[in-house]
Design goal:
heterodimer; A: alpha+beta; five-stranded antiparallel beta sheet; 5 strands; B: mainly alpha; two-stranded antiparallel ribbon; 26 helices; 3 strands
């Protein structure tokens, strides 16, 4: 079970915030933002152990829309929980 | 003379005993007359004064004399003492009057600030008032206001230096320093809410040795305490609405202020009957229009030829669609701008015809003229979808609306209706998708280089990261944010993610310029932030956040934007080639005409 707002450390020893999680066709996709540098981010499929970055541009477009909706929907909860 | 001295005087010199009449001592009438003369006293004729009576008379006279003397001394000292500050100010105006500079507000206030340092402000004020009363200046009030502003600005600079030192010596905390400066600004500049103040304030603070977060805190204070109430008051009190209000907002606050913040303030103002969303749209459109107008005015002033103007337009010095530039020229021509419009049009028109969406433009113009409803427009546009993509159509609507075209609905409304219709009819539009990514392509590799976007005369460099590299990342550790610092970092990261995603969607779905999209997103997020005070604390420096977000917004759509730009560059290249040919033709035509005249 992944939660929005979790902090993940990847193999490069960098920390990323799980900003958004969406399900598309029974797959889990995550949107990670690097904690120390918000300009760096990863969008990919999470398989339980790691993330595979998305290469399919059509899927990427779909995901961006879904992430946007998810972020908007969950922002109030995040603010309530973290502030 | 003291009472004792007077008594002694009488006893020893003036008073001569008249004998023990009723055991009273009397004063000689001659002596009494002399004394009366000396003090200017009137005596009762024939009366012989006793010593006590004479003593009372002389004491009273002496007191009167002293009072008179004191008064005279006071008058004399007033006349002889050095001039007061008030008089110096008045004398200064007398001098100014001689050189006829008494009403030059800026010059006089500068001189007062430089020359009369340390003079109490009340004296300056009184001096200016007297000078005005005496007719030495007609602009006393303006001069005083300007002087007061400059004086406070000067003190502010000193205060900032002192504050920076105190901070360095650990005498004050960052919080204390920020509060002190903010309070000073509030107390001294309440009456001067204008962009000149902000300009001075901003540069003084930014050039100071104060840490960046303290600087930002002070600037935030300025926006909170000055700009917010000011804009709200303005929007509430202004009777007119719509485009005129947007124009005014731009005129008043568009100089030094951060337009994003101005718009965010309006959006959060909750002013009754104010369509903030519409106002925001109008402000941005007008802001763009202002830039085009400025460039066109410059071209007019420089008396550029049609060919030169077209060259500038093509060189993207005016980063707007040609149709928009042309319609702005049309508008400005009618307002008196002198440009070789016909020449420009002659060069641009053939190109416009070559533009694929001209059919869309014609349809839209007719729809506007005939005041068609959204449904009617959508029905017409639906037919065009056989030839053009939905994005192309929407982009044209967007461009033309920016150029002043009035339609029954906004491009967003029309997009939504088109999409709905498409779904209802099961239409599959031609070339529907945005540029796709080809990871092996030369374009993709180039996209990793620093890309530059031109917008509003400013160049913003964005470190475009590829959207995806296809890599796999292993998650080594998962944890929940525990410390307050981590929690803040999480919220900030999520806000940035939201900004980037919104920007990407706006850019790819609506075809909005990535920078405009980022700007739009920033505004929305700033609105959220300003409604939630706790959120402001999350953002260590709002300015930086906005900057990062804009860049990030562009980075998010970087690849798409880059691909679009490459496409555009190719089109522009083709257009340039055509323009060159046209230019040559024009040149030849001119030569031929000249030749004809000569002959």
């Amino acid at each position: 079970m992944i939660e929005r707002g979790e902090i993940w450390t990847l193999e490069d020893d960098k920390k990323y915030v799980v900003a958004s999680i969406v399900d598309v066709e029974q797959k889990v996709y995550v949107y990670l933002v690097r904690k120390e540098d918000y300009k760096k981010y990863i969008i990919g499929e999470f398989d339980g152990e790691g993330i595979n970055e998305i290469e399919d541009s059509e899927l990427l477009e779909t995901l961006l829309i879904k992430f946007n909706e998810d972020l908007k929907e969950n922002l109030p909860n995040i603010l309530a929980e973290y502030l | 003379m003291t009472q004792e001295e007077i008594t002694e005087f009488w006893r020893t010199q003036t008073v001569i005993s008249m004998g023990d009449l009723d055991e009273k001592r009397f004063v000689k009438p001659q002596s009494m007359e002399r004394i009366a003369k000396q003090y200017g006293i009137e005596l009762v004729t024939g009366k012989i004064y006793t010593f006590e009576e004479a003593s009372k008379i002389i004491t009273a006279a002496e007191i009167r004399k002293r009072q008179v003397l004191a008064q005279e001394e006071q008058t004399a000292s007033v006349e002889n003492k050095p001039k007061t500050y008030v008089e110096v100010v008045v004398a200064f105006f007398e001098l100014l009057k001689k050189s006829n500079k008494q009403d030059t507000v800026r010059f006089v206030s500068d001189q007062l600030t430089e020359r009369l340092q340390g003079v109490p402000i009340a004296d300056i004020k009184r001096g200016i008032e007297i000078a005005s009363e005496r007719g030495l200046t007609t602009k006393g009030e303006e001069i005083f206001n300007e002087y007061q502003f400059k004086r406070s600005a000067k003190v502010l600079k000193n205060n900032i230096e002192v504050a920076a030192k105190r901070l360095e010596n650990h005498q004050d905390t960052e919080e204390q320093v920020a509060n002190k400066i903010a309070n000073f600004i509030y107390q001294n500049f309440r009456m001067h809410r204008n962009d000149a103040l902000f300009g001075i304030l901003y540069s003084d603070i930014k050039e100071s040795n104060l840490p960046e977060n303290v600087q930002q805190k002070i600037i935030d204070c300025f926006y909170e305490r000055f700009l917010t109430p000011d804009i709200e008051k303005y929007c509430r009190e202004t009777k007119y609405r719509g485009n005129l209000l947007a124009k005014d907002i731009l005129r008043i606050y568009g100089g030094c202020f951060d337009l994003e913040r101005v718009v965010a303030i309006i959006e959060c103002s909750k002013i009754p009957n104010l369509n903030a969303e519409k106002l925001r749209y109008d402000i941005y459109c007008l802001d763009d229009e202002e830039l085009v107008k400025k460039s066109l005015t410059r071209m007019s002033r420089d008396q550029l030829s049609a060919v030169e103007i077209v060259k500038e337009i093509k060189a993207e010095k005016l980063p707007y669609p040609i149709s928009y530039v042309v319609s702005t020229i049309e508008k400005m021509q009618s307002a008196g701008l002198v440009l070789p419009y016909e020449g420009i049009y002659a060069i641009l028109a053939p190109e416009k015809q070559k533009n694929k969406p001209s059919e869309i433009e014609t349809t839209l113009r007719n729809a506007s003229k005939e005041k068609r409803s959204i449904e009617e427009i959508v029905a017409e546009l639906g037919r065009l979808q056989e030839k053009y993509s939905k994005e192309e159509i929407i982009k044209t609507i967007h461009d033309m609306q920016r150029g002043g075209l009035v339609l029954a609905g906004s491009y967003e409304d029309l997009y939504a209706s088109l999409k709905q219709k498409e779904e209802e009819m099961g239409l599959v539009p031609v070339e529907h998708k945005m540029a796709t990514l080809d990871l092996e392509s030369e374009e993709f590799i180039e996209s990793q280089e620093i890309a530059t976007l031109h917008h509003n005369d400013e160049i913003i460099e964005a470190d475009f990261e590829p959207i995806s590299t296809g890599k796999r990342h292993t998650v080594m550790k998962r944890e929940k944010a525990k410390s307050s610092l981590d929690k803040k970092a999480v919220v900030a990261a999520i806000l940035v993610a939201l900004g980037a995603a919104s920007t990407a969607v706006l850019s790819s779905v609506f075809g909005v310029n990535p920078l405009s999209a980022a700007r739009n997103t920033v505004t929305s997020i700033m609105s959220v932030a300003s409604r939630n005070p706790a959120l402001a604390q999350v953002l260590p420096a709002v300015g930086d956040f906005v900057k990062n977000l804009s860049l990030f917004g562009m980075a998010a759509t970087g690849t798409i934007a880059w691909l679009k730009r490459r496409k555009k560059q190719k089109t522009e290249q083709r257009k340039r080639e055509i323009a060159e040919v046209l230019e040559e033709l024009m040149h030849e035509k001119e030569e031929a005409e000249r030749g004809g005249k000569t002959r």
